[in-house]
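call fold(seq) -> tokens
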Amino acid sequence: MAAQSSLVDFVKRRFTQRTEDVLTAYLCLLPWIIGFLAFTLGPLVFSLVLSFFQADLFTRNVFVGLGNYVDLVQDPLFLKSLRITAIYAFVSVPLGAATALAVALLLNQKVVGLGVWRTVYYLPSVISGVAVAVLWLQIFNPRMGLINSALKVVGIEGPSWIFDSTWALPSLIIMSLWAVGANMLLYLAGLQGIPTYLYEAAKIDGASVWRRFWHVTIPMLSPTIFFNVVISLIAAFQFFTQSFIMTNGGPNNSTLSMVLFLYRKAFQQTRFGYASAVAWVLFAIIICFTLLFIRSSSLWVYYAGEERNE
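ret:
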């Protein structure tokens, strides 16, 4: 009986301690849980419900079912914003990934002042988006801008950049290369994690520099490439600050992104139901491409030590 009583006391103490640990953990998590419910999940559910209404949140809220989504498909301005966003994302992301990798390869060499160069390339990625937009407004100035002034020195008449409907979107894509520093840093960390014996073995086998890069560097760096591309693609589909601050979607709506289109519908025209439908279409597009990349990763992403089924 004494042994049984001791066992019961021990179980009670363990149960009490476990309960206290669980309660403590939930108390520590409570601020985050409240914030998530109030500022993320709550607005998310509210916007989904709102997308089925013709609502301005002030005077009328009329249930229209899928009416907002049907109107989107028939809205030429929305389709144009979708096309512009897709062009920006599918051009700027590969270009940015290639540029970041090229810079990382250069900074992975033994050069004088390596720490200074790494800092210089990384700093632009931590500057505010509005400040960067104002800076590039001056750079793209067709009369006194840095680019056209440099082109004029060699006898080339530069374009009007963001003031020309043909060059406006390419200008924003060029501008996106300004902030490759964060991706560059991840590539640099990945490069320094590649075992040197792999390069030595490839060199002994007679592999050229290009073959070592393609068959050693790229496979070993593929997890980092995968991460950077997915994160960059999600961010690119949501680009807003550049087009809002620099061009306001112009000229002739040539830089009208989906998020800027959403902003206009919600906060300028107070069509919050319609804007919510735009947000959910954008969310669906991002989810689809993210899942597509994740599903395709088994074909081209290599993790050291894993066994691959051929």
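Strands lie at 53-55, 61-63.
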